Amino acid sequence: MAGRWFSRGGNQDLPVRDWVSTGQPARAQGFDQTMVWVIVALLALGMVMVYSASIALPDNPRFARYSPSYFLSRHVLFIAMGFVAALVVVQVPMQVWEKYAPWLFVASLLLLIVVLLPFVSKPVNGARRWIPLGFIGFQPSELAKLAIALYAANYMVRKMEVKERFFRAVMPMAFAVGVVGLLLLAEPDMGAFLVIAMIAMGILFLGGVNGRMFFLITAVLVGAFVVMIALSDWRRERIFAYLNPWDEKYTLGKAYQLSHSLIAFGRGEIFGQGLGSSVEKLHYLPEAHTDFLLAVIGEELGFIGVAAVIFAFFWLTRRIFHIGRQAIALDRVFSGLVAQGIGIWMGGQAFINMGVNLGVLPTKGLTLPLMSYGGSAILLNCIAMAVVFRVDLENRQLMRGGRA
């Protein structure tokens, strides 16, 4: 019997084939192997570059008690933990995530409150962002990114019938994001708030919220960020430093990281200075193994290395969005919006980090997903990608005529 082709959904219909009727085997149509290799490549390159960027840190008195491979060994441990967590999470049906999405969001709010308590966390560079859990410092804002993607998708499914009404569809979500924002700004962590706001707004827009309401929310958020910058001396100084990083007033102050990041890219030229040959990582560029890892890549691997990383993130984000559109076409709106929310998270955060490193955006404390050093960040990145793989797996099962 010839295979039947049919399509579902609204404006995003996709051809879906009944594999059962063709008699063809479901030959590991269960996962996207190309996406697996792209993620593995990003993790592997990140591991190499974290080692390269951190190998000289023990020369600094602050890290004198650490071995040259200290950050590498911990990073490998975090990747292993993320791999194990991903294997567990990919077994969880999306129906379970949909059922418990509100509770996960509440749990993330509670953790964002707990991290502000003086007897729970200790300030690092003036910020309270980590809850110490023995060998790892857990960052609740990373969990909040996944939680907001799940909660916003769940919220849009529940509010689908009233999505054209501002006060019934938009205001409750705006209030939830506002609460998260207040807690993050108290840490302070404006970068995480920016990513979370992007995820929530993106899901509202993709979920079908009226365009005028979406632009109204955008205007309110932009206005809020402008007010926060205007009322904060140090944030305002960061903007001025970003606009003129070579000014003598800022080069050794607020623009110190940016100026040395730009020097690193300049030294890298087309093909780079060679792996391990960065000069800026030798205590000139602060946080080289976390926020400014791309600058070390630029110096050691040149334009070619940076372009490869940018292309990999572009391809990955585009593929995640394709999986989300496919799920929506199969009438799985929650799964599709979750996947697209994670795509906004990965693509948006990577864009901001790259923009900061290249001097296109003001300096923010955001890591490069899947690559920068960081325990909870790598762990949640791997879990988020496992959720996307689960969405893809269920899509493929439905296209073979089975059940998700």
Concise structural overview:
The chain is built from 14 helices and 4 strands. It has helices spanning about 20, 35-55, 70-90, 95-115, 140-160, 165-185, 190-205, 210-230, 235-245, 250, 255-270, 295-330, 335-355, 375-400, and strands at about 5, 15, 130-135, 135-140.
Number of strands: 4
Q: How many DSSP helices?
A: 14
Count of discrete domains: 1
Beta content: under 5%
Structural class: mainly alpha
- Rg over alpha carbons: 22 Å
Task: Name the average pLDDT.
Answer: 85
Strand order across the largest sheet = 1-2
Assembly form of the protein: single chain
Pathway: Cell wall biogenesis; peptidoglycan biosynthesis
Family: Belongs to the SEDS family. FtsW subfamily.
Enzyme class: transferase
Transmembrane segments: 35-56, 76-94, 100-120, 166-184, 190-207, 214-232, 292-317, 329-352, 372-393
Polypeptide structure, described:
This protein has 404 residues and is mainly α. It has one domain (30-399). The chain is built from 14 helices and 4 strands. It has helices at residues 19-22, 33-54, 70-89, 94-114, 140-158, 166-186, 190-206, 211-231, 233-243, 248-251, 256-268, 293-329, 333-357, 375-399; strands spanning 5-6, 16-17, 131-133, 136-138. A two-stranded antiparallel sheet has the order 1-2. A two-stranded antiparallel ribbon has the order 3-4. Strand 3 and strand 4 (136-138) form a beta hairpin. Residues 1-28 have low confidence and may be disordered.
